[in-house]
Amino acid sequence: MANKRRLVIGITGATGSVYAVRMLETLRDVPDIETHVVVSPSGVLNIKYELEITRQAVHGLADCVYGFRDVGATLASGGFATAGMVVVPCSMRTLAAVAHGFSDNLITRAADVTLKERRRLVLMVRETPLNLAHLRNMTAVTEMGGVIFPPLPAFYHHPKSIDEMVDHTVARVLELFDIDVNGPQWEGT
């Protein structure tokens, strides 16, 4: 794994765990990417509820897995070089913690490190409707260099299933890290 680019993936308790699992499944087929995963306790609950799969099954999709409270892990250091980090899905609690620099768990600490090292941070926020605190937190993260990417489906590629919508969103997010997984492209009208 020495020549692989590392991508950190945080999975939190917002709805939309299908995006995280599909991203991990997709990245298993990308030979030059190494996945480093942290799942929050609420993320584990949502994965079990929404997808009816176990924590172990999700861990099995990752190259490296870390404990949620392990703030001494390699991910907590800027010296651990990564291509960046995506939080998928990103809860409003995690968004707020990142926006205000609260590094009380490994997901928020890794996000803080990603920002301070000027690496790409993508937060796939999942909430609706949004209140003013949510919007201000999104603005704060954007001003720090992060990317707010709500997983909103696109329809220009005429998806025939939810899986196709999820795959398209995952491909678009991975493009932000220069990872091409051959998703549908906009070709104009």
Q: Can you count the beta strands?
A: 6
Taking the sheet with the most strands, its summary is: 6 strands, parallel
* Proportion in β-strands: 15-25%
Rounded average pLDDT? 95
Please identify the structural class as seen in this structure. alpha/beta
Query: What characteristic shape results from the CA principal axes?
Result: globular
Low-pLDDT windows of residues? none
Contiguous helical run count: 7
Summarize the amount of helix as a percent range: 25-40%
Order of helices and strands: EHEHHEEHHEHEH
Distance between the termini: 42 Å
The largest beta-sheet arranges its strands as: 3-2-1-4-5-6
Radius of gyration: 16 Å
Pick out its properties.
189 residues, alpha/beta, 7 helices, 6 strands, globular
Fold and architecture overview:
The structure is a single chain. This protein has 189 residues and is of the alpha/beta class. The protein has helices spanning 17-27, 41-51, 55-59, 92-99, 106-116, 132-143, 162-175, and strands spanning 5-11, 33-39, 64-66, 84-90, 120-125, 147-148. A six-stranded parallel beta sheet has the order 3-2-1-4-5-6, with helices on both faces. 39% of the residues are buried.
